[in-house]
Amino acid sequence: MLLTVKALQGRECSLQVSPEESVGALKALVAERLQVPVEQQRLLFHGKGCRRTKPQIPANSGKFQQIPVVWGIFRGYFWGSFGFNLELFWGDFWGWFWVILGFIWGYFCVIFGLFLGNFGLVLGLFLGYFGGRL
Where in the sequence is the domain holding 62, given as residue range(s)? Predict the structure, then answer.
């Protein structure tokens, strides 16, 4: 399959790889083509970091696939101009929103003597975990 790897400064290269290719091998190819050291690369595929030995690239697509390579030193991580994915950001935002709302509900129930406080805390944790993923 053909992958296009896009770097921070807008440089990109196309790589022909098999779906069985490991992330380490893919990073070695990127290091060779874009002159970015392997230890400074962070590969993203569909908004998720490729940290496993296999990048889990769907072999059935046959479509144009793009993997951004993000780097630049920030708190020990390597980020680019688009170092976060909006989809993941909103997922995290709504997850935390439901957690905080559940805790507020729980404390409200405790303060006013309602017996639903624990239910609110559990519901907030549940919605916090699944709320951004629904």
Answer: 2-78
